[in-house]
Design a protein that fits this description.
about 190 residues, alpha/beta, Rossmann fold, seven-stranded mixed beta sheet, about 25% strand, globular
Length: about 190
């Protein structure tokens, strides 16, 4: 990406942060977002799946780190939020890398072909395990699964966290971030 495009994406991220703070939108935010961006930079994925687009903050954050030939598929259940996300992705000059699908992730994931080498989950907490079950066969060996809110919603995500930590299919670690955290799991 050119420096001008990176600056444009950064401007869009700042605008979404401001809106998120005013309207109390549950975006990943800059602190956990930095960890997410670092994981994208480290793993250099070609095919990313995001569950829970909201208004596109994390999609812009990840897409700006992706190579020109990489793609991000993101799923959002609410049409108006997906439309706002599409506008934000477009304003950030990242539309060529991002496909936004409107629908229930539990239905949509079944229809996706994959393979994916990175997944970001930030949607209905009690459904994280279902999302993973549906995408697991579409994840490459070495794929990273990055799950947000593994601290404050650990109880709602208990089945997911138990699975990635103990099933033997993932090498998983929890990263504390303030009063919350993220679970980063690498498929073995």
């Amino acid at each position: 990406m050119s420096q001008q495009s990176i600056n444009r994406a950064d401007d869009v991220l700042k605008q979404i942060q401001t809106l998120g703070n005013r309207q109390f939108l549950p975006i990943i935010g800059p602190v956990k977002g930095k960890i997410l961006a670092e994981e994208i930079q480290k793993t250099k994925p070609k095919h990313v799946l995001e569950v829970g687009t909201l208004i596109g903050y994390s999609a812009v954050l990840m897409a700006k780190e992706l190579a020109a030939n990489a793609e991000l598929v993101t799923i959002e259940i609410h049409r108006d939020e997906a439309e706002l996300a599409a506008q934000n992705v477009e304003r950030a000059n990242l539309a060529a890398k991002v496909t936004i699908i409107v629908g229930d992730a539990i239905e949509v994931i079944r229809t996706l072909r994959g393979p994916f080498d990175f997944a970001f989950i930030d949607a209905e907490k009690v459904e994280y395990r279902q999302y993973l079950d549906l995408m697991e066969d579409k994840l490459t060996r070495g794929a990273v699964v990055f799950a947000d809110n593994a601290g404050i919603f650990a109880d709602a995500m208990a089945d997911y966290l138990d699975y990635v930590r103990n099933c033997g299919k993932y090498q998983s670690r929890y990263v504390q971030v303030g009063d919350d955290g993220v679970e980063i799991s690498v498929k073995l």
